[in-house]
Structure formats: structure tokens, C-alpha cells
Design brief:
Distance between the termini: 63 Å
Number of strands: 6
Shape: elongated
Enzyme class: transferase
Number of helices: 20
Radius of gyration: 26 Å
Catalytic activity: RX + glutathione = an S-substituted glutathione + a halide anion + H(+)
Strand content: 5-15%
Bound molecules: glutathione
InterPro entries: Glutathione-S-Trfase_C-like, Glutathione-S-Trfase_C_sf, Glutathione_S-Trfase, Glutathione_S-Trfase_N, GST_C, GST_Phi_C, Thioredoxin-like_sf
Number of domains: 3
Helix content: 40-55%
Family: Belongs to the GST superfamily. Phi family.
Strand order of the largest sheet: 4-3-5-6
Keywords: Transferase
Length: about 425
């Protein structure tokens, strides 16, 4: 069965796939879709396939499939058989999708597409994204001064994915962002002179009689986490993001310079504390609320931290999340504050506060010991967000002279050794330097 590609010649996402099919010398039937007539929303289209029985959408997933399936024809776009180079192709494909695309697509959208819909271009959106794109291109310039293409000295899918948006971008007044960076310019000239791209580029124009735009330009922004790698609350969120295998941008906040008390930060968190997580228009603070959001939103990826679909287990996870917050956290955070932070701020450690809280924590841990002698983890025989929330404070606590109150309780000790050896936390713990 012949491959059929449904799309439109001016669409960036359609062209990403066409260029790939040309590179791989794969024959296909092109079926134009009349978006203006809403054809793409009809059941005939929403049930679409097109390679035999397989249905694929998302242009980057389609190119990966084509490059893999037709590995023996055309250019090798994924460095088949070389795991290191193949991994670098994946890295730079992600960079295109996570860093480059979110900045360039709103510019192209505002400049070309908004006017087609009768709205005026939003200059503030353009300006913000031109600045963002410039920063991404600074990284590209540095990379391309050491290798000819993004993933190495070979053209790959990672370079190819940049073609459609850059094609349109070069027709805007901000093309100098590319042209003024000599390595980026040379790279662009190289990749845009490939026959596979030249075959499609002529048909790529936004014209007003083609109002039925083929592509919905995604204006999604990468998730941003503002915080510090040594902060316990930040570490909770970082560990959760790793467990859920979520891509994010980490934005360090300079606490010593008081950056978290400046209006630019207190508009995100009125309490002027880290961490803050930004996901599109939403700015969230309070680490436990953030982890709950991440674990819920990314239900489909990574480890299930909330026991989705099992009401009883999910309720027990909530119970032990509350126990951590109401019983465990108050004494342990006091001990850590007195032992590690007070001296950093030039204050002396208040031993009476430590003693009182060690006693309090011991009583909480007696309850944990009894619970963990019946179930492997706090909420049941499954690791959950409730266990995860204990990690950062306990990590520092184990470096104090009172670690024996964990080690002296065999079930608590075994539980701690188990949860702290998960790869998601080990990654985070390496950067936890406050203790
Ligand atoms: N309950 C908050 C606590 C946040 C918190 O205490 N953050 C600390 C760093 S771990 C902070 O921002 N400290 C600076 C300050 O409070 O000025 C959460 O869980 O997010």
C-alpha cells in the first residue's frame, strides 16, 4: 500500500515530513486537505492512517518513523548503527522542539498568520520571542563553531526539522538574527541548499487566498522551574519531574542577591520563595502543590506517583502526603535549619530547638516504623508521592549527628535506603550541597 501524506504545501509541519520523505527517496501520494472547509475535523480525517494499517500524526514522530523504516534508502538521517551519534541526533531534535520551535513559531505566526485572520500582529509577542530566539541562536552559534551540523559533522534529522520555520523566518525583518551569526548563517545556507528542501520551498508561501491554514502553530512553552539545586522544596519538584520523565527548563534564582524578593519574582510567588513552576500561563508555588500538579498532568508518562484509577490507594497516598507535611516536616525542617542554615547566616545553632525537635521527630518515626513493618512504603506496597516528599529533608538529616534515629529503626532504615536509591533522586541528590 502506498504511503499517503495528508497536508498542505504551505504548512510547516507538512513540509517537515515532505523534506524527510524526499531525503529518504520514498515515493508517496500527497493528498491536500482543505482546512478552510474544516475537512480535517471530519471523522473521515480524524480516523486517518497512512502507511498500510498504521496511523501517524505529529510531524516529528512521522519523520522519525520514516527515517527508521527506510533506513536503507536515501540519506541516513538518524546515524543508524552508531548509538552515540544517534543519541546526539535525538538531543538536537529535542532542542529544536523544546527551545527553537517555541521561540520561532510565535514570530512566524504573528508576522504571517495573524494578518491572514484579520488580526494585527502582536509586536510584544514578537519582541519577546525575538529575544528568546536570539539566546537559542547564541547556543547554536557556539555549537556550530565546533561541528558543521547540530549533532556533529553530519547532516541529520535534527537539522532537517529546522527547515520549515526558518524558511518563513528568513522572510521577516528579523532574518538578521540568523545572518549576523556567521556559523548559524553558514549552516542555514548549507541545509537550505539541499535538493530535498529546494523541491518544496517554492510552494511554501502564506498567501491570503490560502486562508485554510494547514497547521495549527503550537504556541506551547516549555515548563520552567525556578529554584536552586540545594533547596529542599526545589528538590522535591525536581525529583517528581524526573520520575514523570518531564522535560523542563531550570531557571536558577539568586537568593543571596535577593532575586526572589523582587517584583519580577513575587508576581510568580507572592511569598517570595522558591520553587515556582511555570507551565504556559500558569505559575505555581508551594512544592507539594506543584508535585501534585505534575503527577496529575503527566499521568501518561513515567512512574505513577498517585495510583491513578485506584480510589483507595490514591486516598492513602493523600493521607501520607498530609502526614509528611503536618507531622514529619515541622520537626525535621527545624533541625536542618538550626544545624545547617543558622551558621550560614552567621547565627549560632540553638541546641534546645534541636533537642525538642529530635524528640518530636523520634515519635513520628515510631509511627513510621510500625507502618513500614506492615507495608513496604508509607501508603502501601507501592512507592508514591508521599514517600518522595520525604527525600530532600531526610537527605540532609542523614548528614547530622542524629541520623541514628533513622538507622536505629530497621524498617524506617530499609525504607530510606530504598527510596533514596531511586535514579530520579540520585540525580537530584548529587547537587544538594547545603549539608
Ligand atoms: N512551603 C514552601 C516552602 C518553600 C521554601 O521554604 N523555600 C525556601 C528554599 S527551600 C526559600 O525560598 N527560602 C528563601 C526565603 O524564604 O526567603 C514549599 O514547599 O514550596
Amino acid at each position: 500500500m502506498a504511503i499517503k501524506l495528508y497536508g498542505l504545501p504551505m504548512s510547516t509541519c507538512t513540509n517537515r515530513v515532505i523534506i524527510c520523505l524526499h531525503e529518504k527517496e520514498v515515493g508517496f501520494e500527497f493528498v491536500p486537505v482543505n482546512l478552510f472547509g474544516g475537512e480535517h475535523k471530519q471523522p473521515t480525517f480524524t480516523a486517518k492512517n497512512e502507511d498500510g494499517d498504521l496511523t501517524l500524526f505529529e510531524s516529528r514522530a512521522i519523520t522519525a518513523y520514516v527515517a527508521e523504516k527506510f533506513k536503507d534508502t536515501g540519506s541516513d538521517l538518524i546515524r543508524y548503527g552508531n548509538p552515540n551519534e544517534a543519541a546526539l541526533v535525538k538531543v538536537w531534535s529535542e532542542v529544536e522542539s523544546q527551545q527553537f520551535n517555541p521561540a520561532i513559531s510565535p514570530i512566524v505566526y504573528q508576522f504571517f498568520v495573524a494578518p491572514l485572520y484579520g488580526s494585527s500582529a502582536d509586536q510584544a509577542v514578537i519582541d519577546a520571542n525575538v529575544e528568546k530566539l536570539g539566546k537559542v541562536l547564541d547556543v547554536y552559534e557556539a555549537k556550530l563553531s565546533s561541528t558543521k551540523y547540530l549533532a556533529g559533522d553530519f547532516y541529520s534529522l535534527a537539522d532537517l526539522h529546522h527547515l520549515p520555520y526558518t524558511h518563513y523566518f528568513m522572510k521577516t525583518p528579523w532574518a538578521s538574527l540568523i545572518n549576523s551569526r556567521p556559523h548559524v548563517k553558514a549552516w542555514w545556507e548549507d541545509i537550505s541548499s539541499r535538493p530535498a528542501y529546494k523541491k518544496v520551498s517554492e510552494a511554501m508561501t502564506f498567501v491570503s487566498n490560502q486562508l485554510y491554514l494547514t497547521h495549527t502553530l503550537s504556541l506551547y512553552m516549555a515548563i520552567k522551574l525556578y529554584g536552586l539545586p540545594r533547596s529542599t522544596a526545589t528538590c522535591c519538584v525536581l525529583t517528581c519531574l524526573h520520575e514523570k520523565e518531564v522535560e523542563f527548563e531550570f531557571v536558577p534564582v539568586n537568593l543571596s542577591a535577593g532575586e526572589h524578593k523582587q517584583p519580577s519574582f513575587t508576581t510568580k510567588n507572592p511569598f517570595g520563595q522558591i520553587p515556582v513552576l511555570e507551565d504556559g500561563d500558569v505559575a505555581l508555588f508551594e512544592s507539594r502543590a506543584i508535585t501534585a500538579y505534575v503527577a496529575e498532568k503527566f499521568e501518561g508518562t513515567g512512574y505513577d506517583l498517585l495510583r491513578h484509577g485506584n480510589l483507595n490507594e490514591a486516598a492513602l497516598v493523600k493521607v501520607w502526603i498530609e502526614v509528611e507535611s503536618q507531622q514529619f516536616n515541622p520537626p525535621i525542617s527545624q533541625i536542618i535549619h538550626q544545624f545547617f542554615l543558622a551558621p550560614l547566616y552567621g547565627k549560632s545553632t540553638d541546641q534546645a530547638v534541636i533537642d525538642a525537635n529530635v524528640e518530636k521527630l523520634g515519635k513520628v518515626l515510631d509511627v513510621y516504623e510500625a507502618k513500614l513493618s506492615c507495608t513496604k512504603y508509607l501508603a502501601g506496597d507501592f512507592y508514591s508521592l508521599a514517600d518522595l516528599h520525604h527525600l530532600p529533608h531526610t537527605h540532609y538529616f542523614m548528614k547530622t549527628p542524629w541520623a541514628s534515629i533513622i538507622n536505629g529503626r530497621p524498617h524506617v532504615k530499609a525504607w530510606w535506603e530504598d527510596i533514596s536509591s531511586r535514579p530520579s533522586f540520585k540525580k537530584v541528590a548529587e547537587a544538594m550541597t547545603a549539608g
